[in-house]
Amino acid sequence: MTAYADFYRRSIDDRDGFWAEEAKAIDWQTPPQQVCDYSNPPFARWFVGGTTNLCHNAVDRHLATRADQAALIAVSTETNTERVYTFTELHAEVQRMAAALKELGVQKGDRVLIYMPMIAEAAFAMLACARIGAIHSVVFGGFASGSLASRIEDSEPKVIVSSDGGSRGGKVVEYKPLLDEAIKLSSYKPSAVLLADRKLCAMNIVAGRDHLWKALREKHLNTVVPCEWVEATHPSYTLYTSGTTGKPKGVQRDTGGYAVALAASMKHIYCGNAGETYFSTSDIGWVVGHSYIIYGPLIAGMATIMYEGLPIRPDGGIWWSLVEKYKVTVMFSAPTAVRVLKKQDPALLTKYDLSSLRALFLAGEPLDEPTAQWISDSLKKPIIDNYWQTETGWPILGIANGVEHKASKFGSPGVAMYGYDVQLLDENTGERLTGANQKGVVAIEGPLPPGCMQTVWRDDARFINTYWKSIPGKLVYSTFDWGVRDEDGYFFILGRTDDVINVAGHRLGTREIEEAISSHPNISEVAVVGVADQLKGQVAVAFAVVRDASGLVDEAARAKLEAEVMKVVDNTIGAVGRPARVRFVSVLPKTRSGKLLRRAIQAVCEGRDAGDLTTMEDPAALEQIRDSVQ
Ligand code: PRX
Hints:
By secondary structure, this protein is of the alpha/beta class. 31% of the residues lie in helices and 25% in strands. Strand 28 and strand 29 (506-509) form a beta hairpin. The longest helix has 18 residues, at 555-572. The protein starts with a helix and ends with a helix. The structure holds adenosine-5'-monophosphate-propyl ester. Residues 241, 286-288, 363-367, 385-390, 413, 479, 481, 493, 496, 502, 507 line the site of adenosine-5'-monophosphate-propyl ester.
C-alpha cells in the first residue's frame, strides 16, 4: 500500500486510534475520555469528556511563541484600508468584543447572529463568541431581509452584531435598514444589536436596543475575558444552508471535533505551516470562510487574509499583489473567481512575485477542465480541487499532499479524504457501486468524521430524515451529489440530485427563490431551475405563471414585470438569488399527480433531451418553455 492508502485505511479501520493521534494537535483543558461515541447513530459525539476552546486554540495558545507575528490581515479595496493585527492585537480585540457581548447579556450557549461585511470586526465577533462559549450564526452579508429574518427566527440570537454597511465595486450596500426590516419581520426579537460604524452611510439607531461597538470597545479596552472551557461536543456555531425545502437548515457544528478536523486538514491537505500566510478569497458568510479564513489558518498559527472587494478592482492583479506583499503560501478560491480572472489581461499574472505560493486550492463548485488548465498554465503552481459541503466543514474529497504527494486529475476533486467512508450508491436500491465509472449518489457511511455537522439546529428529526433516510434500506449520509469513481479511486462530481443550485459557488435552494417570487401579487406559480452558465457555473432561470396576463401585451410589459419579479427576489433573498431571466408562461410542465417536472425544464433550457415524459400532464407546457428560451 502507498502511504496515503495506508493512512486512509487506518482512519477507517482504526478510527479511534487515528483521531486520538490527530487530537494531540490542539490544546485541551481536560483531555477526552472517549474518542467517538456512536452509540446513537447517526449522531456522532467526538472527543467526549474533553474540554477545550476554539478561540484559545486559534489565538491565545500562539501568544507564547508568536505574539508579534501577523494573525489577521484585513484588506479592503472598497475603503482602501489595510490593517495587520498581530496575535497580541487580535487577542486584545477579541477580548474587547467578548466583554461587549457579555455586557449585552450573552452567556455560554446563547446565540449571536453576525451579519457583517468582510471587516476585521466580523472576525473579532466570531472569535469572541467562541471565547465565551456563545454559538455564532453568521449570515452572509449579501442576503436581504427575508433570508435574514428566517435565520433570526430560527436561531433566536440574544445579540446581533452588524454594521452600517458594506461596499461592493465601490457601491455602498446599506446593511442597517435590511437588518431593521428583518427584525421587524421576525417574531423573535434580539435583546440588543451591536454595530460597527464604518461611516459608509447614515445609520438609524434604535434607542435601548442598538449599541455602538466603538463605545463599548473603549469601555472595555483592558477588560480581561478568559476563555470559557466548553465540552468538546458544545456547539460552536450554526450556519444556514439550502436544501430541497424552502426553509434553510441550521447546520450545527461542535467545538472539539471541529478544532481537531481543521488542525488535521491544515497539515495533511492544505499543508500550511505556522508563521506563513493563508489567503482564502471566500466570505465569512459561507463555510469556507468559517473553516479557512478564520479557524483553520489561525489554529495552525498562520496569518490569514480577510479581503473585502472584487477580484478585479482596482484591476485583476489585486489578489496576486497580496500574494506578493504578504508572502502567501497557501491560497484558496472558487472556480468562478478564476473564470472571472481569465477574462483579464494575462500580463497581470506575471507582474507579481508569486514565488512564496505553493498551491492554489479551489472548491465550492465543479472545476471545469479549461479553467483548471488555464490557471495551471498561468500560475505554474499546483491547482488542487477539493469537494465538500457546509455540512462537513472540511474536504470529503481531495488530495492529501501532506501525507503523500499525489497528482491531481483535472475534472476530479480527488480521492476520499481520511475519515470519510465515501461510497457510491444506487439511488433506488441503495446498493454499493464498486465498479469503475458507475454513476451513483455520493454517500458517507456513519459516523461522519470530526468537524462535520452534529445535527440540524433544534431539529434532530430533520437531520435524520433529510440526510440519512434518502437512500432506501439503510442509514447512510447522502451528499445529494451524483458522482462516479475511476479505476484509481478519483471521484468526479456530476451535479446535485436535489433542487439545490450552485451560482458562482453560492449554494442556493430553488425553492427559496420560488417562494420569494410567489410573493409577487401577480405571480400564481413558478418553477426555478439551474441552467449551465459559462461564467457562473449555473444561473437561476424562473418560469412564472401570471395571475392576470392581460397587461402583458408586449415585450416592454414583460420586461417590466420581469424587473419587478427580480426586485422582489433582491428584497427578500438578496441579489445572489436573483434569476438571470424570468420567463412568463401560461402553464408549467407537471406530472399527472401534480409534481413539477424541474429536470425536464432544466434539460430543455440546456438544449438536452428532456427524458421520459410519459407521466406529463400537458406536453404543450414543455413546448412553451422551449419556445420561451429559443
Ligand atoms: O454540489 C457540491 C458543490 O457544492 C455543494 C456544497 O456547497 P456548500 O455547502 O456551499 O459548501 C461548499 C464547500 C466547499 C456540494 O454538495 N461542490 C462543492 N465543492 C465542489 C462541488 N462540486 C464539484 N466540485 C467541487 N470541488
